[in-house]
UniProtKB/TrEMBL annotation:
Top-level division of the source organism's lineage: Eukaryota
Positions of transmembrane segments: none
Family: Belongs to the NAD(P)-dependent epimerase/dehydratase family. Fucose synthase subfamily.
SUPFAM superfamilies (UniProt xref): NAD(P)-binding Rossmann-fold domains
Protein name: GDP-L-fucose synthase
Record carries keyword Signal: no
Enzyme Commission designation: 1.1.1.271
Pfam annotation, one family: Epimerase
Keyword NADP included in the entry's annotation: yes
GO molecular function, one term: GDP-L-fucose synthase activity
Pathway: Nucleotide-sugar biosynthesis; GDP-L-fucose biosynthesis via de novo pathway; GDP-L-fucose from GDP-alpha-D-mannose: step 2/2
NAD-dependent epimerase/dehydratase domain boundaries: 1-236
Length: 312
């Protein structure tokens, strides 16, 4: 059972599972949305677990947003994520779920740190103040995974994806993440004949993972990764790109040929968050990531075809 199954990550899992022979032949997947029940509410959460009786859970449902929303709504990001996570974890204990995989984020890592960041550093100092509500709520998933294991023997773990992009994202310009925001802005720039304006200097560096690649890796974690310790799911350090380069790839993917402008009056956020994928690479040396230009081209094509119905 996948909570938050209609979101960017859930849809990546669904797309990958639809192509995987083992999943098709031997597994049954249920993708939930908020319409199946509000996970902020324990009674509704329990009703979901009673209805579906899941053996395995991938927990994605969360209040998610970009830098600007995180800055503005710290209390809501903390409270809603704490409530959702508490309800889902406790139901996994009550209903004897065999394995729970939850989703952290690289935002959880300390602001002042050495690079590359790795899984041992989750609690090694305060997160960046811009997203501390979200980051502390996410850190508590890792704390509680260990508590549930120690006290109840639960098989809970978590993954830490870097920045994710793909079809079915939230393409909101004000409240969304960087790639979908860039795609939407580029689309409007082309349509209105206005410049394609990137917020900030374009110099921050990020690692981006395509949601279908993340889907493949999350199902592998569910099946085969049995440690309570989180695992970073990311492209390598050598594949880090600047926001400016990502914007240029978006412009190419959108076939935009107009002017590209950087609005340096807008905040940049953390300069870099370089994460090591050594733990993943030791276990999955074979895994091939989709090249970013290809993933972005597919995402841009999807947005062009679905701009009327896409979120945001
Ligand atoms: P989305 O915002 O795309 O999707 C969120 C999902 O959660 C939707 O299915 C939504 O349902 C559901 N949901 C939200 N609130 C509730 C609620 N109260 N009750 C039930 N369901 C709810 O999120 P993503 O796919 O981007 O993120 C998935 C996970 O990955 C999250 O835990 C997030 O923190 C993490 N993550 C995301 C990153 C990213 O770049 N996007 C980066 C790192 C981690 P509905 O469709 O009905 O609204």
């Amino acid at each position: 059972m996948v909570t938050g199954g209609t979101g960017l990550v859930g849809q990546g899992i669904e797309e990958w599972v639809s192509t995987d022979p083992t999943a098709q032949a031997e597994e049954e997947y249920i993708f939930l949305s908020s319409k199946d029940g509000n996970l902020l509410n324990m009674a509704e959460c329990r009703a979901i677990f009673e209805k579906h009786a899941p053996t395995h859970v991938i927990h994605l449902a969360a209040k998610v947003g970009g830098l600007f929303n995180n800055l503005k709504y710290k209390v809501e990001f903390y409270r809603e994520n704490m409530l959702i996570n508490d309800n889902v974890m406790e139901c996994c204990r009550i209903y004897k779920v065999q394995k729970l995989v939850s989703c952290l984020s690289t935002c959880v890592f300390p602001d002042k740190t050495t690079y590359p960041i790795d899984e041992t550093m989750v609690h090694a100092g305060p997160p960046h103040s811009s997203n501390e509500g979200y980051a502390y709520a996410k850190r508590m998933i890792d704390v509680m995974n260990r508590c549930y294991r120690d006290e109840y023997g639960c098989n809970f773990t978590s993954v830490i994806p870097t920045n994710i992009y793909g079809k079915h994202d939230n393409f909101s310009i004000d409240g969304g993440h960087v790639i979908p925001g860039l795609i939407h802005k580029c689309f409007l720039a082309e349509k209105n004949g206005t410049p394609f304006t990137i917020w900030g200097s374009g110099s921050p560096l990020r690692q981006f993972i395509y949601n279908v690649d993340l889907g493949a890796l999350m199902v592998w974690v569910l099946r085969s990764y049995d440690s309570v310790d989180p695992i970073i799911l990311s492209v390598g350090e050598e594949d880090e790109v600047s926001i400016a380069d990502a914007a240029r790839m978006v412009a190419k993917g959108m076939a935009y040929s107009g002017e590209v402008v950087f609005d340096t009056t807008k905040a940049d956020g953390q300069f870099k968050k370089t994460a090591s994928n050594a733990r993943l690479r030791a276990l999955r040396p074979d895994f091939k990531f989709t090249p970013m230009a290809q993933g972005l081209a597919e995402t841009c094509a999807w947005f062009k075809a679905n701009s009327a119905v896409a979120r945001g």
